Amino acid sequence: MTIPQDRIIPTDLSNEMSRSYLEYAMSVIVGRALPDARDGLKPVHRRILYAMYELGLTPDRPFRKCARVVGEVLGKYHPHGDTAVYDALVRMAQDFSMRSPLIEGHGNFGSVDNDPPAAMRYTECRLQALSTNALLRDIEADTVDFADNFDGSQQEPIVLPARVPQLLLNGSSGIAVGMATNIPPHNLGELIDGTIALIHNPDLSEKELIKIIPGPDFPTGGQILGRSGIHDAYMTGRGSITMRGVAQIETIEQRGRPDREAIIITQLPYQTNKAALIERIADLVNEKRIDGISDIRDESDRDGMRVVIELKRDAYPRVVLNNIYKQTPVQGNFGANMLALVNGEPQLLTIKDFLQVFLDFRVETITRRTQYELRKAEERDHLLQGLLIALDNLDAVIQLIRRAADTSSAKDELVQEFGLSPVQADAILQMQLRRLTALEAEKIHAEHEELQLKIADLKDILARRERIEAIIEDELTQIKTIHATPRRTEIVHDDGEIVDTDLIANEQAIILLTEQGYIKRMPVSTFEAQQRATRGKAAAKIKDDDVVEHFLTCCDHDQVLFFSDRGVVYAVNAYQIPSSSRTARGIPIVQMLPIPKDEKITSIVAVSEFREDVFLVMLTRNGYIKKTALSAFSNIRTNGLIAISLGDGDQLRWVRLTREEDSIILGTRKGMAIHFQADNQQLRPLGRATRGVKAMKLKKGDELISMDVLPAQVTAGIGDAAEDEDVLENETEELTEEETTEGPWILAITNGGYGKRVPISQFRLQRRAGMGVRAIKFKSKTDCLASLHVVNAEDELMIVSNRGIIIRQAVDAISMQSRAATGVRVQRLDDDDAIAAVALVPPAPETDEGEGEEEAAEMVSE
């Protein structure tokens, strides 16, 4: 076949290739791969949702086959393969793929193990309530533009009138030509809070928005390590966000076999295939790249995910867990690339840009909706005005119509005679006879007046930007009330990351460590409110066979030093300890510190500043005491630092902060106490890797149970005692007036719940390594001393029992007695309970009235 010469157009090949490829690239970018920044949807997702809306698949209607929806989308709007449409539909129904799914699925829609969904002929679907409330509402109110479909037979929306920033809510990913996008999902409530804040203050910076929207919120939960990646993504549009699954180290009880340590994975990073992860760990174990694992099994069920990794007896759980983080997808990176279409062009957006584009679009949609409602109201009112004219001239109108030859002439005569418009004349001619009654006439008058008010209100909305912004805020608040859910992904501190502590509130906190190694942090304000609400019930939920062993009050900016029985010290910032509610058990401390299995934390100290003139006094189980400058512990390595050298069979038990001019008091299980100076003569400073000197001479069967520090101004004027003073018979029960009115005092509390205050003057200063004096007389033979503390009149106590019962007790409510007295009941205990720990609460900083009340109410309801 010969082609006529006039149909051949000479074209430069390079220009043609460049133009054609550019057209193809833009077609992929705009029509397939990148989402619109306004509604956050790609064309295929938008067409699926609109097709389901047209089919009437709202949340209150029955499910329909997915094949019906896919056929509707293919035939009307999206002339591509059915697999592409069905895959997009399935993803919008997966709760592990989207933070807030837009479609409700019925049937097999796949799993986190990457199992494929059932064929579309088996599965069913309908729209989620969020889709109808936040994406499709008002679509028929001329809020968005419509365009012809591929063959011009149908109209489809160019964009959906989204009421929430959907692109940030569910995120998006796509690969175009020469560019790609990868936007993480976020929490709906936080996004709405950020949008409302931007409405109130358009000059809000990205840094201020980050305080409201702290980071992504992935549907599978997990953790985000550090904030630097989030900061980069929100400030520049690109950033690498480190994700980590949630893993705990637990002891598994096995019948007929010794208990074993196991790593339990309960949450995975976003888009991680669980089955592939288990296979990957097994391969690494077989290749001997990860040691210490004896078995792996998947115990996940409908209640949640649970991957159990059993460890060998000689394995260090923390080391194995770190290897899993390093070599498997349990820890990975989300490469955020915040690219989206703005006015049809791909742009890299910051967090503020996303919200600003959404707000501008929302203003446009509300303006168009208001204009549409105004137009409809004015049209209706125009008809009513014509009906009112007819009612006012009813007899004349009836006569005119009766003598008219036909409808057309009647219409023309009405227009000419009464000055009506053709539309009004049509309405009069179509009016039913029943509308001529007096009651119907009143209804027309009332509707006319109501429309006049509505028209004035709509015009006021169009004239004032603040009215439109108020409507946006009101609609956002309604959606938040109905659809917002708690955050699933926790943002935790990353080791080595520089943290701006000014962004972290320096609140008072309680830190609890149990005998089985579970640690938790609870705000003091929350605890106080909870105490008022629960009237002293259990404030720390622990296992039946576990007991609270260490109890500390500090501030969130403090550094907490953990001393082990082997004389090693570890350090962690207080705010890094996960904050838990009353009903939470906490997390294993081995998840925070690299503590070997046979090592145990015996003392906790909170430090706000490492000063040269402050010392740490350490006391061992065998009675050796040592004083070391606090500055020697300012740089503690991740794997710990040697704090004291120990002899065979000895353990580090107590550590306290002191100054050189202070004095030290020790207490023993059998009620003895010794008081001596902490100066260089009695206790000279020693280095870290030293043993110390003898602190006290103990009787047979006795042991040290407590150590506290007395400030220098308190002990001024107290005389020295004889070395062997320990005679109760020669002491008097009566106290001097000065002793009873002036503190501080020594507070002694026994295991049985009895306690008393004793004037410090009754504990004369002695030389170190003496026998001491008797501090208390026991109520029964089975009772023993549990705690010996230095207290002031304004102090308060936190008393913890073995069963986790915590009470708050004012010091001045405890009776003042001599050393020879037995004390009064401080806490009433059950027969199988005993006092486990006693801690002082420092003066609380000023807080807003009612702070912590809401969380307390939640704890009570639990």
Question: Can you describe this structure in just a few lines?
Answer:
The chain is an alpha+beta fold.
Proportion in β-strands: 15-25%
CATH architecture type of the domain at 507-845: 6 Propeller
Q: List low-pLDDT spans.
A: 534-541, 726-732, 843-862
Overall shape: elongated
What name goes with the CATH superfamily of the domain at 507-845? DNA gyrase/topoisomerase IV, subunit A, C-terminal
Structural class: alpha+beta
Return the average pLDDT rounded to an integer.
86
Total of helices: 21
Give the beta-strand count. 40
CATH topology of the domain at 507-845: Neuraminidase
Using only CA atoms, what is the Rg?
A: 38 Å
Largest sheet: 4 strands, mixed
Distance N to C terminus: 85 Å
Regarding CATH, which class of the domain at 507-845?
Mainly Beta
Measured as a percent range, the helix fraction is 25-40%
Strand order of the largest sheet: 14-9-8-17
Main location: cytoplasm
Catalytic activity: ATP-dependent breakage, passage and rejoining of double-stranded DNA
Family: Belongs to the type II topoisomerase GyrA/ParC subunit family.
EC number: 5.6.2.2
Can you give a write-up of this model?
The protein is α+β, with helices and mostly antiparallel strands. Among the domains are: 246-329, Gyrase A, domain 2; 361-482, Orthogonal Bundle (Topoisomerase, domain 3), CATH 1.10.268; 507-845, DNA gyrase/topoisomerase IV, subunit A, C-terminal (Neuraminidase), CATH 2.120.10. Helix content is 31%, strand content 24%. The strands form twelve sheets. Strands 14-9-8-17 form a four-stranded mixed sheet. The protein has a four-stranded antiparallel sheet with strand order 10-11-13-12, covered by helices on one side. It has a four-stranded antiparallel sheet with strand order 20-18-19-23. Strand 4 (146-148) and strand 5 form a beta hairpin. Helix 7 packs across helix 12 (351-392), helix 7 (188-200) runs antiparallel to helix 17 (465-483) and helix 12 runs antiparallel to helix 16. The longest helix is centred in the middle third of the chain and has 42 residues, at 351-392. Keywords: ATP-binding, Coiled coil, Cytoplasm, DNA-binding, Isomerase, Nucleotide-binding, Topoisomerase. It comes from Crocosphaera subtropica (strain ATCC 51142 / BH68). Residues 34-503 form the Topo IIA-type catalytic domain.
